[in-house]
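Schema walk-through. Below, the input block comes first and the output block second. Nothing else is stored per chain. Lengths vary across the set, and this one has 220 residues.
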Amino acid sequence: MYIIICGADLTGKGLAQRLTQRKHDVVVIDMDLAACEEIYANYGIVTINGNATDIETLESAGIDHCDVALATMRSDADNFAFAMLAKHYKVSQVIVKMNDPKYEDVYKTFGVKNISRGTELLIDQIMLNIEDPELRTVICFGNIEICIFIIPENAHCVGQKVAELASLKGFPEQINITCIFKDSTNSYIIPRGDTELNEMDKVVLCGSIKDIKEAVKFLS
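--- output ---
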């Protein structure tokens, strides 16, 4: 895919690097010349030193044949302006990093639905690390999270089957054990009702963070 990233901060830089590693064609736009030169020098990614809300700059970046437009600038006003221009050029997928939650309704009103709540996700991740260090968040979809939990030694659930756990009082009904990584066989399995949990298994839990925390307490 051809992807334009507007904003060369840590988020934009990290996305550009990963997308390039996955063989996407990436162009980064930023007002900071030093940031553009750094990205090009370190990763060989095409950069444009300019204003991402300027039509000529966007046209020189190839906005007319862009598949995905990413706005990761520090200002929500700039991200919004870029998103509107990208939609004008009929970019099929427009994604913005929202810095201020007050802009959420504005984005949605004008049809920008792919919103990354960077600050909220960071706060949630830090809180999880403080309160539940045994959990590691993989990804978040709104109120639903996917987390990895390692079954500790001598845990209550060791030797029990998935179906047995799900039927026990106290285990959250809305939690789904989606995958288990078995260290003993170095492989992932999709759990069935008769799948047993063992010490040091890496269990992938899907649900709300409240239910995940309750499930972890129960499994421990």
